[in-house]
Amino acid sequence: MKFITEYDLKYQYQQQPFDTFQVTATQRLTPEARQFLADRRVTITTAQPPVTTATPKQPATAKSVPVPDHKLAILVNYVQLDLYETALACKPLDMALSQQLLDLAESLEAQAQKVAAHQVPPANLVAPNTFKLTYLYALSEYGPIMIKLAHLGNALLLLGDRLAPEPNELIQVILQQLAQLITELKHKEE
Fold first, then answer.
1. Which of 71, 92, 138, 169 is the most exposed place for a label (fewest CB within 10 A)?
2. Can you give the pLDDT at residue 63?
3. CA distances in angstroms from 163 to 89, 169, 171, listed in the order given
4. Which range among 22-31, 42-51, 52-61, 114-123 shows the weakest confidence by mean pLDDT?
């Protein structure tokens, strides 16, 4: 089942405006997407599934290999690179924090595997304003580090809406850790 969001429709509509939209049997529209179409007076049509005849299933000759989740791998790589960059920038200021960031980066792949295997309890949602900084924090000694962590946190909040449920759980785990690091840095500045 694929859910079509308002964002998906806005993107398609910007590329090429349309006056009818076809939804297949395996797709659903979110309420916001439905409203977007209604606001633009776009007609929603439902595609009828093709009639097929049943064919016997062929026995598998080889074991099926699980397909890796490319979105999850890209997300992990993206976050690791940002954490490495932040750790490098943080090294002259606070070696312990730099090491903490490197450890977090190194643990991401293991966390991603646990999330994919549903071995991680659901994380508490992080409030979007968690990564909002005032100019006082931005101009402080740890300001560049907090800005980088907040930038990564905000990017992950945006990515969380676009990815499958498993990466969303991983994103929430990472977001909690980033929020904790920013809170610790804010307390160092006070």
1. 92
2. 43
3. 29, 10, 10
4. 52-61
Locate 182 and state its tokens: 């920013």
The phi and psi torsions of 52 (rounded to 5 degrees) equal -125, 155
d(CA 111, CA 87): 19
The residue whose two tokens read 């606070």 is 94
Burial of 123 (0-12, 13-18, 19+ CB in 10 A): middle
pLDDT in tens, 35-85: 888 888 888 888 765 544 444 444 444 443 344 466 667 777 878 888 888
User: Which class for 79: exposed (0-12), middle (13-18), buried (19 or more C-beta within 10 A)?
Assistant: buried
Question: Which residues in 151-173 are b (16+ Cβ under 10 Å) and which e?
Answer: ebbbebbebbeebeebbbbbbbb
Q: pTM of the prediction?
A: 0.49
Give the CA count within 13 Å in the CB-facing half-sphere of 73.
Answer: 4
| DSSP state at residue 28 | E
